[in-house]
Design a protein that fits this description.
By secondary structure, this protein is of the alpha/beta class. It contains 20 helices and 15 strands. Strand 7 and strand 8 form a beta hairpin.
């Protein structure tokens, strides 16, 4: 029996582990309340294909190459829970360190799977002289490791037992310093798992550094380049159609596990909601602040609503670079249409401009309050007929009365704080004519108004769920504004003060 063929049986064993309450490893350690044995501790509960992906990564298929949206992060964390290494290094692009920190804490692996003294350490550019834990998980960006050789050397000496390399397609160029840094870290690490939704974008050579990273090159011909590529008139290496079937077979048998949404359709829920946590960079905040500055400076101190409105717009503008990166990755990995939801006109326009600069071939359209009736009909028609890749839509304008079921995925760059408005927007794609599971992703910027807004939204959903279970909360919350204003007034005033100090400097 092959390693892959026995995954279903292994999956059953893993399910028993993640449903098991934690054991008292150290009687002196204060443990959290023991959960109900019938309730699994791993959060969120993995789908069967995610469990199989984690097992595959540990049994000869260390490249998790599922298309974007299928939960590669969850699979990697589950692999850590199964393997239980003493020291784990997670590398990712700078914008993803916050989300990895959030997902790692949420998963429960530090409490339930790893040694009792395991801790989580996130190293950012602001961390000057990090103290590495004796046991546990370190999360940092590949950019920082490249920029700080002493940090890379320190972590190398830390001797990690497992390396999770997220967005591994960033290492497709073997000559870059970033690739060499990661290869050096992986060299003495027993278990290396690479995550990428786009393992090969243009040439078979894209995958070769990832194979070296995961130590799977021995499954492929020694002369990899000339076996799977041929040179064109200009001397560029392009795919050799005759040998591509062999490459695919070897990758499938010995290197990666790759599923599409269509492959696991039956396991996916009708609608799944995800949050993607990000940390806004100072440059992004500064650029956004310059646009919002006049509104902030003219807002009266006794006008918390006006202040909150300005701060929400600032947050939305500052998220445009990360939203752009997320959308481009989604497009590159899936080629599927997407709805990008926002509130402010300046955010809608800024996002479209950023997408055109980064991906000039992307076909985009904006649907907002200024869109005429004729334009709305045309945009809707063009989107449904496949002439628009990304529809950038305003929640208040496009959140009702439209059918956009060509898309099954949506990104909330900004969000409202009433469940009705959010669900109405979601229902543009989650409708009767939809034939695919729907995935909703919300960008949440750390230490901004995003967090309390999301918290308020979740609280309201819980309350409404008790009143109208199964209704998906198509109700109006007439008292929301006052309650939210009271809740955010102090936060907004504090944020305003910080911005003014920054301006004075």
């Amino acid at each position: 029996m092959s390693k892959v063929s026995c995954l279903p049986q292994l999956s059953t064993a893993v399910e028993k582990v993640i449903h098991r309450p934690p054991t008292q490893k150290d009687p002196t350690r204060k443990m959290p309340p023991t959960p109900n044995p019938s309730s699994p501790w791993f959060t969120p509960q993995p789908f069967p294909y995610q469990t199989q992906g984690a097992l595959a990564a540990l049994t000869g298929h260390p490249i998790i190459a599922d298309e974007p949206g299928l939960g590669k992060t969850i699979q990697a964390l589950l692999a850590i829970a199964i393997k239980q290494p003493t020291r784990t290094l997670i590398t990712c692009p700078p914008a993803l360190t916050t989300n990895w920190t959030y997902e790692t804490n949420r998963s429960g692996i530090l409490t339930h799977a790893l040694p009792h003294d395991s801790t989580l350490t996130t190293i950012t550019p602001q961390t000057r002289n990090p103290t590495l834990p004796n046991t546990g998980i370190i999360i940092t960006s590949d950019t920082l490791l490249t920029a700080r050789p002493t940090l890379a050397q320190k972590i190398h000496a830390w001797n990690p037992q497992m390396l999770i390399a997220d967005e591994a397609h960033r290492y497709k160029n073997p000559t870059t310093k970033r690739t060499r840094t990661l290869l050096n870290l992986a060299k003495n690490t027993p278990t290396v798992i690479a995550l990428t939704g786009t393992p090969i974008t243009s040439s078979p050579l894209d995958i070769l550094p990832i194979l070296r990273l995961t130590k799977t090159t021995h499954h492929f011909p020694h002369n990899f380049t000339h076996t799977y590529c041929e040179q064109n008139y200009f001397g560029d290496y392009i795919p050799n159609p005759k040998t591509l079937p062999d490459l695919y077979m070897r990758l499938t048998d010995h290197a990666w596990i790759r599923r599409t949404k269509a492959d696991v359709l039956t396991q996916l829920p009708a609608k799944a909601r995800h949050t993607h946590h990000i940390t806004l960079q100072p440059k992004e905040l500064a650029t956004a602040y310059e646009e919002v500055r006049p509104q902030l400076l003219t807002t009266q101190e006794d006008d918390p609503r006006g202040l909150i409105s300005a701060l929400r717009r600032l947050t939305g503008l500052a998220k445009i670079p990360e939203a752009t990166r997320w959308i481009l990755e989604h497009q590159e990995g899936t080629r599927r249409p997407l709805i990008a939801w926002a509130i402010h006109t300046s955010v809608l326009n800024g996002l479209q401009q950023a997408l055109h600069q980064a991906g000039p071939n992307l076909r985009t359209a904006i649907y907002n309050g200024q869109t005429t009736a004729e334009e709305r009909d045309k945009i809707t028609r063009d989107f449904q007929n496949g002439h628009i890749d990304i529809l950038i839509a305003q929640i208040t304008a496009a959140g009702v009365g439209l059918t956009l079921t060509r898309a099954s995925e949506a990104l909330f760059v900004e969000t409202e704080w009433t469940p009705a408005a959010v669900v109405q927007a979601e229902d543009r794609i989650h409708r009767i004519s939809q034939t695919h599971p729907v995935t909703i992703t919300t960008l949440l910027a750390e230490n901004t108004l995003d967090e309390p807004i999301h918290r308020v939204l979740q609280e309201k959903i819980k309350v409404l769920d008790q009143l109208t279970p199964g209704s998906d909360h198509h109700v109006t919350d007439q008292h929301a504004n006052r309650r939210v204003t009271d809740l955010l007034e102090v936060i907004a005033e504090s944020f305003h003060t910080q911005l003014k100090k920054g301006l004075d400097k």
